[in-house]
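[Meeting: bench + compute handoff]

Bench side (C.D.) handed over the final construct sequence. Compute side (W.E.) agreed to return the predicted structure before the next meeting so the bench team could plan truncations. Sequence as handed over:
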Amino acid sequence: MKRNFYLILALLFAGSLQLQAQKMAVELNDSKEVLLDEDIATCKITFSDGKMLFHVNGAVKNTFEIKDIKRIYAPRYSSVDALDMPHKMAYLSATQQLVVGAEPGTVMTVYHANGAKALSHIQTIASTPVSVAHLPAGAYVAVVGGKTFKFVKQ
């Protein structure tokens, strides 16, 4: 019961961040994260039979067992993400991964704030997470398709 209260509180909080975050992520108990990459303002969340259903344009896009949800949060996005571009990125801090919305064959390069190249990755599958767990804490800039994305790894 207490867990359901916190889940509902988190959903309300995520709704209040709508103007700032626009996106939502769900972290599951097994440490997997699902980026719900739809504009929150166009989505609907319902609960039924112990499940949370995420609706997009009237159809259920994602379903989660409430007992499997660890937290729901609004990922931090760079202001670059507000632009309408094909190469969107998100940093999932809980799993230390970058989610890159790029077509297979697209090259992503990550630079440390000091300008040193930290990582180069060729996207093999669209929107596959890329681990940055091996990188030291600090500020980074990821470049993909000529677009930049800033993130801070703690």
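W.E. noted at the follow-up: The first strand starts at residue 24 and ends at 28. C.D. will use this when planning the next construct.
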